[in-house]
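JOB MANIFEST
job_type = single_chain_structure
chain_count = 1
residues = 73
[input]
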Amino acid sequence: MADLTIYEIPHSPFCISVARALEALGAPFARVEVCNWDRSEIARLTKGQYYQVPVLVHGDRVVYESGGDSQDV
């Protein structure tokens, strides 16, 4: 069972690269498709600090980019 979840827009190149890296590592993960026009779930997860994808949730930890040039995810 996966305790890692990626919130993604399926055709986003940013999401694709993160998902491929997780697959290459053999890490089990779940996928949640985010509607491009409704990012309310992302805003809820990040407490309003972020609205882009991908967002990773691992247990109680929510990981998202902290800036335009960061590589937190």
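[summary]
The CA atoms of residues 27 and 39 lie 26 Å apart.
The first strand starts at residue 4 and ends at 8.
exit_status = 0
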